[in-house]
Specification:
Layout lengths: L2 H21 L10 H6 L27 H17 L4 E9 L9 E10 L10 E8 L12 H31 L4 H4 L2 E8 L15 H12 L15 E8 L16 H16 L33 H4 L5 E5 L23 H18 L9 H24 L1
Parallel strand pairs: 3-4, 3-5, 5-6
Antiparallel strand pairs: 1-2, 2-4
Helix pairs in contact: 4-9, 7-9
The structure holds 2-acetamido-2-deoxy-beta-D-glucopyranose.
Length: 398
């Protein structure tokens, strides 16, 4: 056998093998059922603005380099350690001068938490990445930043717990069937709570996005192990979902990028389904996702809004920017004012957002059948048993 022929043969085998991988069952994209959407857990007491365990500790001033900032950092870290202890937790630290620091270096701490299928090679997993910033703006003095972005942080925290429980169930079910999630599952999930998003003086390329700029640069250079599917931690991000300025009533969310319009539409469709199933408490005459019925050609990519996604976008990461903004109204009226406080949050909207983010993530992670509700899961098991019985019956008939 000539060398050329043997390598051709090798290619052919590889091709067959890849086809097998592509065609293997269970890979088909499965949307969430109505039952699952109806059973999604809704945050309640934990989102109380006065003493709710998740949200209320974030509702304080948290300017980098101040005690309030460190308290919120601790809160987020403790939540992750205690609520989703199987997640990897990392802090990515950097320092920078700011226009007001008089030559002193201000510390910035990004919080990174991720969960991969157990045993999976770290460089072969791509991670849906949910992102919000946890710092608050220095001025006006006493600024709380409830929509900017205390509430988005809380939404992600709540979603993490639901998704984690469902992932555990999914992987346990895989093992039960004799498949190993380490090899059969290529999706992980990641959360970034970024620091130093706000400008200290006035928004410029250097006075803003301190945490995001540092992390994007670091991850662009940090290589995954040799032979990994994904070269860097940056390329391990399948989609960067940035939540910002959410928590006011009747938000308007635009689609900003043609390349991720399909993901935008998935979330817009879930919004409509949750609403028509009566799962949303907030009333709204118009849909939040105003561009859902547009096709991707009609999406005008405008580099317009400066936010934490920019350093990642510049390095080719796919972005879904979920921010309450529309040309006909601008940002929420409370934006960057003293009115952006706990009392001005529309709690029905905050809770609805949490359900929507959870649903989107669950669909992405293919968690149908594993979410919460034991009755839903049980009903599916019963269906499976009936199917199995029918199959066996057929066999005996033959
Ligand atoms: C990063 O900063 C945090 C909080 O200040 C600190 O606890 C941690 O030890 C630092 N990590 C590293 C690797 O320096």
């Amino acid at each position: 056998m000539s060398l050329a022929f043997s390598s051709l043969c090798g290619h052919f085998i590889l091709l067959c093998f890849s086809l097998l991988l592509i065609l293997r069952p269970g890979q088909a994209y499965e949307g969430l059922s109505d039952e699952t959407l109806k059973a999604l857990p809704r945050p309640s007491q934990e989102f109380d603005i006065h003493n709710g365990a998740i949200l209320s500790p974030i509702l304080q001033t948290r300017v980098p380099g101040t005690p309030g900032h460190d308290a919120v950092l601790d809160h987020l870290v403790n939540y992750i350690r205690t609520t989703v202890p199987n997640w990897e937790l990392e802090l990515q630290n950097s320092t920078s001068e700011t226009p007001l620091s008089r030559g002193k270096e201000v510390p910035f701490v990004n919080i990174i938490a991720y969960r991969d299928p157990p045993g999976a090679p770290v460089g072969d997993i791509e991670r849906l990445t949910l992102v919000a910033h946890y710092d608050s703006k220095l001025t006006p003095e006493g600024f709380i930043g409830a929509i900017d972005s205390a509430a988005p942080c809380a939404m992600i925290m709540h979603a993490m717990r639901t998704i984690d429980a469902a992932l555990e169930k999914k992987w346990a079910a895989m093992r039960e069937k004799g498949t190993d999630p380490a090899f059969e599952e290529e999706r992980g999930i990641q959360v970034l709570f970024l620091d130093g998003e706000e400008a200290f003086e006035e928004w410029t390329n250097t006075d803003s996005l301190y945490g995001a700029r540092s992390l994007a640069e670091t991850w662009d250079q940090e290589m995954n192990p040799a032979m990994s599917t994904f070269k860097t931690k940056l390329s391990s991000i399948s989609l960067f979902v940035l939540l910002d300025l959410l928590g006011s009533k009747s938000p308007n969310i635009m689609s900003f990028y043609q390349t991720t319009h399909w993901a935008y539409q998935n979330m817009g469709n879930l919004e409509q389904r949750l609403r028509s199933l009566g799962q949303f408490k907030s009333s709204s005459t118009d849909p939040w996702f105003i561009d859902t019925s547009k096709n991707s050609q009609q999406v005008v990519s405008r580099g317009g809004i400066q936010d934490d996604h920019i350093p990642f976008l510049a390095r080719g990461v796919d972005i879904l920017h979920i921010i309450d903004f529309a040309p006909f109204k601008g940002f929420s009226p409370v934006w960057h004012t003293m009115d952006d406080d706990a009392e001005h949050l529309d709690m029905d909207t905050v809770q609805d957002w949490t359900m929507l983010i959870t649903a989107f993530t669950a669909e992405w992670m293919e968690l149908e059948g594993f979410l919460g509700h034991s009755e839903t899961v049980k009903a599916r098991r019963d269906e499976d048993l009936v199917e199995e019985a029918i199959r066996l019956n057929k066999k005996t008939e033959l």
